[in-house]
């Protein structure tokens, strides 16, 4: 146990880099500008958190007259666990198989289950932070509104502590099994990517299949039961993932027999799956690691003429750098999964959550009803959804960090900083465009938007994407993380990505209050949209111009 705790402590220090940050702040006295920036980012996020709390309050007050307020807990827990399942998949692969500390841990007299348990613990702690903004407002809001007693808060804490275990355990079992099979092949990177996509598709397919169970009309008896049982709606919502039902009943039930029984079921299932991981690690974990870093392929000598031909491809500089950026992203499974595929998965997750329930009581029907209330609100809400899916994925805010120690190549190639930034911007914006297109399809399907509404929302998203992409790239260019230990750190554990997301949320919050002020001042919907387009276009032009000028200065200063 002592060795395991030491491994976990070392893993947390490496993961968060707190020792390095403390050294740079207080010893080298560098990066002190981060302190006010982080404070400003936190202030920018506060209005969004306040809005989320208001949303929780409104949903609770809407469900309480029906006696179905417990469904709010189920929705929050299920959303958090589904988020962990889909996005934890990438993190588990990176932490278990692509972390550079493995080459030091494997030769040590450590058992496979100790190494894997320490990695699992670090991933779990990271997921607490990931789902904090999703789950904690629901748990806290429900507890305050329902006036939950000590039993409620104790069970809520216990459920939150075990919340990531079940989805991460399932993901870990699938990943360890997949990596053992992948290691038989010489095309490991391609198989890892294909296998991960298949696992995501399998998980989402199961969600759809489980969600369709029990759909259909309700007879009079079933309708009466729905309104007389406080668990009717939560059973419908949680039918996709039964552990969310156990968690809800454990929290709401407190120290009653039902509450303790469901808590025991939730915790017991979590511990059983964790034990299965440890048992599986002894047989498959190290076998999936052996030879994973091998590089295969034929090597042959090139003449001077052939080398010159390969170096000078005849491509335009921007196009050549764009292709290089594309290859860096696509040839590293962790980059591709956390960057490009996120813009496809987030809309799909939204579809799953919107279709939670059955019949006329699902979230999709509620969204359709809301879409007919105010066209301006529908356009703006759809635009925000498209921006979230397209621009908040970490691609732009890790554009320079992804190069890692190979950034010296960018400094020595005969291509200006302006052209390199243009190529990186095009790559990041292409990912944003893909997210906007995917989100547009989802919004049109769920909200039944007409062509004009869809075009207006998509246009706002595309214009805003230029500015947000520029902001993300400037933040990463200011302090690129080039000395990372595994690819995951360059994009998911990169502080620049978090700062960029906070900045984006702050920008969107300011725009929200500006639109709200214009509406209260009596501006028409058309006027609001025209003004918003003009402001975003101006910000986009200024943002890209500032990015180019900043790059010309920073490229000379960065030491790779």
């Amino acid at each position: 146990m002592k060795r395991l705790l030491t491994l976990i402590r070392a893993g947390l220090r490496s993961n968060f880099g707190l020792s390095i940050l403390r050294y740079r702040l207080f010893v080298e006295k560098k990066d002190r500008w981060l302190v006010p920036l982080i404070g400003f980012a936190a202030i920018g996020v506060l209005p969004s958190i306040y809005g989320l709390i208001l949303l929780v309050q409104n949903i609770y007050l809407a469900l309480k007259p029906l006696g179905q307020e417990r469904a709010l807990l189920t929705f929050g827990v299920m959303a958090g666990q589904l988020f962990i399942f889909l996005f934890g998949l990438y993190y588990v692969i990176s932490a278990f198989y692509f972390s550079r500390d493995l080459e030091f841990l494997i030769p040590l007299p450590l058992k496979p289950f100790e190494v894997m348990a320490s990695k699992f613990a670090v991933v779990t702690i990271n997921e607490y932070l990931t789902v904090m903004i999703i789950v904690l407002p629901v748990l806290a809001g429900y507890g305050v509104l329902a006036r939950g007693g000590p039993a409620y808060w104790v069970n809520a804490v216990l459920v939150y502590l075990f919340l990531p275990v079940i989805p991460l355990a399932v993901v870990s079992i699938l990943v360890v099994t997949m990596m053992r099979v992948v290691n038989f092949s010489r095309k490991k990177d391609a198989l890892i990517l294909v296998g991960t996509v298949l696992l995501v598709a399998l998980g989402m397919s199961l969600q759809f299949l489980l969600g369709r169970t029990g759909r259909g009309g309700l007879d009079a008896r079933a309708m009466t039961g729905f309104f007389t049982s406080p668990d009717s709606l939560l059973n419908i919502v949680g039918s996709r993932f039964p552990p969310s039902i156990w968690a809800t009943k454990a929290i709401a039930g407190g120290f009653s027999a039902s509450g303790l029984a469901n808590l025991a079921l939730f915790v017991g299932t979590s511990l059983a799956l964790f034990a299965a991981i440890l048992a599986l690690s002894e047989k498959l974990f190290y076998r999936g690691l052996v030879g994973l870093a091998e590089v295969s392929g034929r090597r042959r000598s090139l003449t001077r003429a052939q080398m010159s031909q390969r170096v000078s491809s005849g491509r335009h500089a921007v196009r050549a750098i764009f292709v290089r950026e594309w290859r860096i992203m696509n040839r590293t499974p962790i980059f591709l999964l956390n960057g490009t595929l996120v813009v496809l998965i987030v809309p799909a997750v939204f579809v799953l959550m919107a279709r939670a329930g059955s019949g006329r009581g699902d979230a999709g029907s509620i969204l359709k009803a809301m879409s007919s209330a105010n066209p301006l609100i529908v356009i703006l809400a759809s635009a925000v959804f498209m921006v979230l899916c397209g621009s908040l994925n970490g691609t732009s805010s890790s554009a320079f960090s992804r190069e890692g120690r190979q950034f010296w190549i960018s400094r020595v190639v005969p291509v200006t900083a302006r052209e390199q930034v243009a190529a990186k911007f095009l790559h990041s914006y292409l990912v944003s465009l893909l997210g906007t297109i995917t989100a547009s399809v989802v919004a049109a399907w769920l909200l039944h938007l007409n062509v004009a509404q869809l075009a207006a929302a998509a246009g706002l998203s595309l214009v805003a994407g230029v500015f947000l992409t520029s902001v993300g790239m400037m933040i990463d260019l200011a302090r690129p993380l080039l000395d990372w230990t595994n690819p995951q750190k360059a994009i998911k554990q990169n502080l620049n990505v978090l700062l960029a997301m906070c900045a984006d949320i702050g920008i969107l919050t300011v725009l929200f209050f500006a639109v709200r002020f214009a509406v209260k001042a009596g501006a028409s919907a058309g006027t609001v949209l025209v003004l918003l387009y003009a402001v975003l276009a101006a910000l986009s032009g200024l943002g890209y111009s500032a990015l180019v000028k900043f790059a010309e200065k920073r490229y000379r200063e960065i030491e790779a």
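The CA atoms of residues 339 and 395 lie 5 Å apart. Residues 1-213+229-293 form one domain.
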